[in-house]
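Page 42, continued from yesterday. The earlier attempt failed because a stray header line got pasted into the input along with the sequence. Redoing it now with the clean sequence only.
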Amino acid sequence: MRKFLLSLAIAAAPGLSSAIEEPFYEIKRRIGEVEVRRYAPYVVAEVVINAPAEDAGGEAFPILAGYIFGKNKGLTKFAMTAPVTLAPEPTRLEMTSPVTQAAAPGGYRVQFVLPRDVTLALAPEPDDARVQLREVPASTVAVLRYSGFWTQANYDQHLAELETALRTAEVGWLGEPVLARYNPPFMPWFLRRNEIWLRLRQ
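This time it went through. Structure tokens are written below.
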């Protein structure tokens, strides 16, 4: 974890003096503290890590950072963007014998957003086979923004608040929640921008 935090701090340092690019979106409405955003399509580099949430980010960072810092077929380096997102992968079934299945943990999917001018067709192929490139389609998401430490308790509290607000407004969602982090770890906890996203039914 310490190595991850140090790496993230070093990587983020050059971008502190200017705004960091993030995917384009429009705010369609507000439900109390919740923003309903319409995101345009964007491209991500992603990796699935079979580890608990508290470890997945640290294990994913050097893999994804390697890609954006030039470990790809074009030796292309990309500017840091935001956010870094983390979402649980669904549990999958694996055959343990010809007649028996067992649940295997899905782990977590960690994504780095690529700059807006990068398309899936033009993005260089990763050198590391664990890194996958994908275009995230346009989507409408409900977002709750909060500050504070990156703890499970803080996340759980705000996820519950987001779900309660949507239920009260009779707004349905689908899929797993996404945790979006926008700041390096040396950012004071009270200035951090954290978000939880839930994709809304169309």
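Notes: Helices lie at 2-12, 53-68, 152-168.
Reminder to self: strip header lines before submitting.
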